[in-house]
């Protein structure tokens, strides 16, 4: 447990005196397992605490909050997860539109600069060979990374790879169990620690599929599972702007992967050209 969450739980404990037994049960659960409370519904918390749903709401109000939703928000703030949706700390409340534009552009520029030095050419070659040999490719990403996974499906399908994108976690877990050795799972995660992505990766690994991770850094749970790691060298994600820069870098990795496949296999390149003959002018 990190210090900020531990400090917040200390403040909860200081306000927990004199509660009714049902409310005390909820607070005891909160102190014991704050991550569960932060992700659960009112009914789930009530069931685990052995109280009624209204007791959960009353417990939150007894702590000085407006209700259960406010309690979950306080947990998220203490964990720092709400920071992801905030503007960059470098942008004050009086930031001009021009300053915001420049900061956004700089995040993308910095991410691409890091990518050019971080991406391992041998790893990219290995990913190309894996896709060329694959019976099928499945792409998965959670949250913002889902858009990168969707782009991977488009780019690789055009090049003749039998590619699918799966957006919901349950369907992805089922699909992973049905993979065969030699199939490829392309996993996108900036942090390399997203719980749903890690569960998908673990299921894919048990099927002996080849895991290709597009991520920011080595030394994460995802890179421990992946057979091929395409790391872009992005900074740890503490803010939304950093996440946007990571997505730009991840998309550039896909551009490099698709270009390398087209160059290594001229027949796939011709098939891609044929696939686009009916498209309107995209310029």
TrEMBL record:
Residues 6-82 form the HTH rpiR-type domain. One of its GO terms (biological process) is carbohydrate derivative metabolic process. InterPro entries: Homeodomain-like_sf, HTH_RpiR, RpiR-like, RpiR-like_SIS, SIS_dom, SIS_dom_sf, WH-like_DNA-bd_sf. It comes from the Bacteria. One of its GO terms (molecular function) is DNA binding. Pfam families: HTH_6, SIS. Keywords: DNA-binding, Transcription, Transcription regulation. Signal peptide: none annotated. Residues 127-267 form the SIS domain. PANTHER family: GLUCOKINASE, HTH-TYPE TRANSCRIPTIONAL REGULATOR HEXR-RELATED. This is Transcriptional regulator, RpiR family. It comes from Actinacidiphila guanduensis.
């Amino acid at each position: 447990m990190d210090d900020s969450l531990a400090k917040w739980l200390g403040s909860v404990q200081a306000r927990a005196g004199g509660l009714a037994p049902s409310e005390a049960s909820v607070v005891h659960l909160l102190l014991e397992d704050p991550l569960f409370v932060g992700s659960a519904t009112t009914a789930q918390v009530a069931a685990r605490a052995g109280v009624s749903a209204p007791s959960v709401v009353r417990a939150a109000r007894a702590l000085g909050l407006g209700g259960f939703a406010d309690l979950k928000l306080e947990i998220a703030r203490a964990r720092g997860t709400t920071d992801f949706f905030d503007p960059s700390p470098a942008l004050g409340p009086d930031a001009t539109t021009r300053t915001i534009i420049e900061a956004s552009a700089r995040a993308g520029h910095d991410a691409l600069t890091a990518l050019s030095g971080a991406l391992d050419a041998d790893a990219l070659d290995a990913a190309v060979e894996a896709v060329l040999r694959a019976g099928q490719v499945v792409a998965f990403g959670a949250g913002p990374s889902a858009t990168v996974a969707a782009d991977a499906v488009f780019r690789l399908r055009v090049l003749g790879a039998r590619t699918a994108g799966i957006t919901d976690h349950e369907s992805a877990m089922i699909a992973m169990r049905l993979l065969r050795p030699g199939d490829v799972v392309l996993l996108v995660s900036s942090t390399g620690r997203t719980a749903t992505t890690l569960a998908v990766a673990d299921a894919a690994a048990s099927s002996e599929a080849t895991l290709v991770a597009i991520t920011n850094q080595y030394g994460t749970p995802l890179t421990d599972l992946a057979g091929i790691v395409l790391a872009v060298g992005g900074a740890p994600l503490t803010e939304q702007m950093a996440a946007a820069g990571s997505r730009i870098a991840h998309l550039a990795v896909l551009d490099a992967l698709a270009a390398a496949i087209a160059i290594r296999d001229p027949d796939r390149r011709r098939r891609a050209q044929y696939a686009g003959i009916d498209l309107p002018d995209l310029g």
